[in-house]
Amino acid sequence: MKAINDNIFYVGVNDRNKALFEGLWPLPYGVSYNSYLIDDQKVCLIDTVEVDFFTQFIENIREVIGDRPVDYLVVNHMEPDHSGSIALLKQFYPGIQVVGNKKTFTMMEGFYGVKDKLVEIKNGDTLSLGSRELQFFLTPMVHWPETMVTYDSRTRTLFSGDAFGCFGALNGGMLDQSIDTDWCWSEMRRYYSNIVGKYGTPVQNALKKLAGIPIDYICATHGPVWHKEVGRVVDLYDKMSRYEAEPGLVICYGTMYGNTERMAEVIARAASEHGVTHIGIYNISKTHHSYILSDIFRFNGLIVGAPTYNNGLYHEMEVLLSEIANRDIKNRYLGWFGSYAWASKAVKKIGEWNENKLHFEAVGQPVEMKQALTAETKAQCEALGKAMAERILQG
Q1: Which residue from 300, 304, 224, 232 is spatially nearest to 264, judged by alpha carbons?
Q2: How far apart are CA 339 and CA 306, in angstroms?
Q3: Alpha helices (H) along 230-345
Q4: What pLDDT, on a 0 to 100 scale, did the predictor assign at position 2?
């Protein structure tokens, strides 16, 4: 297996068959389940892999250490895609000691019935492997309550769990300096916005806790090992967890027969004519919401629109607004529009979502269209696009 640096080896696996991560998020490039092995006087494994890949996983471990035992398993995160092999691993290495915090072990017993040979650590505790010492930092709610990170000061390597991870299988290499990482940045943003995005404050707390630690390598549980781009990765997480956004506009619409879509096109054209260069337009019934949420995290302007449906709000818009609210996104500008055939509800419902759940800064005058686009409604859509453009550029 490939050495990352001084006797630290990658022993993870790739999953190119899973279509939806957590049954929710599309995986066009697959996903990796990363595990790392430190070959010191004591052999230490950092996290495991999803249980379906255990055969390959144990082969990877033995390729590094042969028949030697694994002395320690550090569990940074208990989600089954990283902890799923614990019970089987204990059968292969019955003397292995599992290192984690109190919350880790409560979950471990519940998931796998494992409750022996445990080494409980607290924030800041250390563990000697012989020529190096590992230090542990608790990072609760990034993005589960038991999450923690492990730091090797000798190599300045941070084993970060799900933090700093991204979707996508690894195509041969794993170190960022030896692979094309162009695809990683959008997949990292999509991973963060959909899975970690709700927990901006805990991420900020974790970054502050790690601020004084020199980091040369980040070994996350998904995606590449970061070395050359460590600074960029940390900066991206810092900005996303502070809900900092670039100037740009996301327009999301629902439509049944194309009339509401026409409103979205007019709004987008007006915003473009008034200086907004980054505009994404999404049909919420066609584009998976994970991509929309990623752009909402990225850009500071959002305009949503939908028709009235069954005397309420178009279902997919209701779902999207719920997903936005659930992530506790802050500091965005919001405009909205809607349409109806005989009973007006959509515009009112979107306004209620913003007032009660989103709490974004309202921009422009909401536009309501009855049946089809008229010259008057078109002018109102243009005014909404212009107002949003001016607010976005004003910052």
Answers
A1: 304
A2: 6
A3: 230-241, 259-273, 289-298, 315-326
A4: 79
Q: What are phi and psi of 187, to 5 degrees?
A: -75, -30
CA 265: distance to chain centroid? 30
pLDDT tens digits for range 24-35: 999 999 999 999
Q: How far apart are CA 78 and CA 87, in angstroms?
A: 13
Alpha-carbon distance 151 to 133, whole Å? 8
Predicted TM-score of the model (pTM): 0.94
Give the bridge partners for 339, in sequence order: 307, 369
Rounded CA separation 50/13 (Å): 9
**Banded model confidence at residue 1, pLDDT cuts 50, 70, 90:** low
Question: Could you give the angle at which helices 289-298 and 184-191 cross, rounded to 10 degrees?
Answer: 100
For residue 72, give every residue at least 6 positions away whose Cβ sits within 8 Å of its Cβ, in sequence order, or none. Answer: 42, 43, 44, 45, 96, 97, 98, 99, 119, 127, 129
Residue ranges of alpha helices (H) inside 102-255 are 102-112, 184-191, 200-209, 230-241
Torsion, CA 265, CA 267, CA 268, CA 274, rounded to 10: 140
Cis previous bond, 289, omega within 30: no
- Using CB atoms within 10 Å of the CB of residue 286, give its burial: 0 to 12 exposed, 13 to 18 middle, 19+ buried: exposed
For the chain, helix (H) and strand (E) counts, in that order, are 12, 24
**Cβ neighbours of residue 236 under 8 Å, at least 6 residues apart?**
185, 188, 189, 192
DSSP for residue 52 = G
Strand, helix or coil at 199?
helix
Written in H, E and C, the secondary structure of 277-302 is: CCEEEEECCCCCHHHHHHHHHHEEEE
Label residue 1 exposed, middle or buried (CB < 10 Å: 0-12, 13-18, 19+): middle
Calculate the average pLDDT of the chain.
Answer: 96
Q: Is the pLDDT score of 309 beyond 80?
A: yes
What one-letter code names the amino acid at 372?
A
Tokens of 82: 């990283």
CA distance 44 to 92: 15
